[in-house]
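new request in #modeling-help
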Amino acid sequence: MTNRAGLRAGLALGGLIFCLGFIAPLLVTADPYAIHPAYALQPPSLMFPLGTDELGRNELWLILSGSFATLSVALPAAALAFVTGAAYGLAAGLAPTWLDHMLMRLLDAMLALPSLIVLLFFASLVPLNNISLVVLLGLISWPALARLVRNEALAQRGRDFVLAAEQSGASRFYIARVHLLRVMAPVLVVNGTFMVGDAIFSLSALSFLGLGVQPPQVSWGSLLQSALNIIALDPWWLILPPGLLVFASLLAASLTGQGLLARWGNVR
Amino acid sequence: MIRMVARRLAASGLSILILVTLVFFMAHLTPGGPAYSILGLKANATSVAQLNARLGLNQPLLQQYGLWWWHLAHGQLGYSYLLNRPVGALLWRYELNTLLLYALAISLSTFLSILLGLAQGVYFGRWPARFIGAFQLGFYALPPFFVAAMLVLWTCVRRRWLPASGMVNLRLAHPGLASYAAHLVLPVITVTLFTTAPLSRYFGEAVHEELARDYVRTARAKGVGFTAILFTHVLRNALRPLVTMLGLSFPYIFTGGVIVESVFNYPGLGWLMWRSALAQDYPILIAIVLVIGLLTVLGNLLADVVNGLLDPRASYE
Amino acid sequence: MSAVLRVENLSAALPRGGRDVPILDGLNLTINAGEMLALVGESGSGKTVAALSIMRLLPPGARLSGNIWLGGQNLTQRPESALRRVRGRDAGMVFQNPLAALNPSRTVASQIAEAWRVHNGGGKSTARVLELLGEVGIPNAAARLDDYPHQFSGGQRQRVLLAMALACSPKLLIADEPTSGLDPLIARQIMELIARLRRELNMGVLFVTHDLSVVEAHADAVQVLYAGKSVEWGSAKQFFAHPRHPYSEALLGAVARVGQARLHNIPGSLPEPESRPPGCRFAPRCAFRQPDCEAAFPPPSQFGATTAACFYPRPVRDRPAGAETFSTAPPRTFPPQLQVRNLTVRYKGKSGWLRAATAPPSLLDASFALGRGECLGVVGESGSGKSTLGRAVLQMLPYEGQVLLEDTDLATLRGTAGRARRRRLQLVFQDPRESMNPRLRIGEIIAEPLRLQGQLSQAQLRENVETLLRRVGLNAQLAGLYPGSLSGGQAQRVAIARALAASPDIIVLDEPTSSLDVSTQAMLLNLLKDLAAAQALSYILISHDFAVVSYMASRIAVLHEGRIVEMNDTKTLIAAPRHAYTAQLIAAAPQPRGG
């Protein structure tokens, strides 16, 4: 598959998932969390296209409201992480050396641990709801981008065209605004795309571990966890949809990001 | 080289210090605190106060912090609130299990990555490389908990070939090696698949890049054959990014670890971290953060040293 | 004499953007034992592709046709396994950029030994390595067997590559730009080494270069490529004395030489392989073009020992064009403008905790003055501190000493006043593409200094940009393009326009032409000269190329290891150099033709 086709496929898939998360849930008329023990653990049928879970809840409704929960937390979290990381990185890249060193030490400390470990740790500390999850995910996922942006800003800052602008009397702020942001735009957009995928993955993993979206709300991760709890009963219809949705989201983000990278990579 | 290692150690030591301090204060400044999570949210004030006194949580925060370092300096990591056992010993037991799992998985995936990466670099742009690329993209996007669940469904629930969880069959009084091995198969496969994808990708890119370098053309102009060029010239130079990646993935292994170990109920460090997080068992959590931080430093350092040996230029800079 | 290499009707096409683009078109050449043939061409001429295709080293996907006769075999018809036996044994090859051409993580000795062992099996390779290292002039070779490429200097690395190519005593040596990127003195040594080894080993040499002056003294035969086609070939002696093709003549006239009065311009730029003109490929730039030149490719016409593919070859003249030397006017005097006193720059070394950073200063105690409208040339090899000098004058890095612009110490100025004063010193960089933000339009790039000064409306800005573009000889329409779509020469003109936009008093030119082709270089130097004359601009011209500096500058400072070892007006310096290093530099530079 060429990168161009990959980019198109990624954008299309991403759009589809977006619709699934934000438009399809409007079609849910009944209470998705209502329990119907009589219909427990039914495989897919005409009445229940995706079957039912062990409490007799319609899996299709659960998936749709789970999609909304997942995306409505992951997307703002990715946006928060993106803005924080880009701002921190740019600031460090433009700061005087001593300040840059201090900012980088802090960053190193945050990067010394895999983000899931940090997430797990902090998720155990705070009361979990959708807003705290956005803040938590957003404030923990930015250091990698910050480091990238800072390194890129430092590299660009030493390039001849920045020196030329300085020689013409450009201020630091002017250089950041006119030169750095424009040259770094592809890097920022590509990594922003990857961050959306990362946020969806992190939230799903947290939810899978029971420290993400809290009951009675469901999410892709928590649906998988509850299916795993009754895996001895072979509930394949409860495992496939949430798993494939996480897969599709990450695939969409990755294809889009790689496609954009290939498209812009040649401009330095 | 020694200077480089020393500088690295100092910088990373500082990072770990900042990290652990951050973690400690975050843990102890949260409302409620451990007492409520042990006794439940409806606990009355006196029993909470009693428990706090017993755990030393009623002392000033700075004093607790100082005490924690004091104990650490003496090799004590504190007591688990819930299991009421010394954290150090507890960690060590779980750590051994994790090491067993990962030593196997990482060796396997390093071997596979080198094979796949060489093929990908050599056949760049042709179908073998595209095939490998699809595998890599697939395992980047597939969530490990989903793959693990599917593996359990197929090999444990439907076929009953392998045990689904734990490390050993608890019903056996004297479990043999076979029992351990059977429990390891699925976790090792899962971890191997998820580490091979990124590792082979980096290595494949490195091989491709190295093959395009001028010195390869020089070797061809000397009349050296392609296979000889690949193994006597390219391999060593291409290994450097792989080594760096391996060093970096040292702690990330534990990320996958939390998920994989929780799916398979494998009693390793990741599993312990997960249970402790659910139970808010801070002494264990802080200790694990410390251990993983140290592993990060160690991994990076190891990668630097190995790369220093692979690259003659590094030792002179 | 017997032919070592015979190339017949060789054509090569490389895949580019999804289709095959012809790069080389019907090349014929013969090299005899002990003979050096110089294959000369500017970028895009196909010379490197020619060298690589003889060894069948083109990247996969390249298409090749014609015959290559080497060692009794036609290499275009042979399988890879047979080619492997030919490479290194019948023909050795050396490349440009020797650092990249050597494997960084294997010892030099093992890489040379490999070249020997591939064709001769194991055994006594160390002895052969020592012998080879001695032959190419690596001093104390026995002690350096365990050294890695990064431990050798640039010139030594090229010698190592040469040793590798000679390991199996091949009958043919292919040298692809082996001297470009090296300092002039080193380049000359390498050139002389290759010329000597050719005689001693009775080896044929195919010497590929973009620089005619490099091969002038040593080549036996010359072949000039333009846009993939040979335009002139034959005896070197006759070629340099009487070039027949207009391109050859123009190219020879465009090479800067010591003491030259005026360089010959070649208008236009080199065609891309995708858009080569029909008929004579040089026709669109040719001063002697006739209508039929553009209809068909001209047939070769022989004259004496050279042949030119031209309908209207140049007549043989006694004195070639462009050989006039200096005017005899007395040196001009300039009103004082810039004073530099005791300029010293120390770069901080990598400081550890234990080790204070005491690197030797990269510039020591440089003092000079620059008058209004004057051009001061600063010449020196890489690492001599010449770029450092320029950057310090521009206030781009910390220094000791004083830089006075019209009696104001620039270092004491801060804030707006500092910026305004600093703006009066501008810089033109070596790599024009690197000096422009690839995401800004040409118009925005040139307008930047104007905009930073403020107080201009959009319409005024646009008008100013157009005026500036025209002043550097560019079409005003270029303002809407991005730098990526410009040729190197155009890009450098834009860089000059940007410098002019700041209405500077002084422009520091840091190797302004060394990334350009010879024909473009001449045009740019002439432009700079004309601009200076038109508005009393002062230049500090920094270059490794003594001829270029002597062409532009009225005064020259020679930098060697961070110090100004000699400074004098150009004519006196050339006529009577007082420092030995200056004399070497002058001797290594291209000398006047026919003189």
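bot summary: The domain at 359-424+504-590 of chain C is CATH 3.40.50.300 (Rossmann fold).
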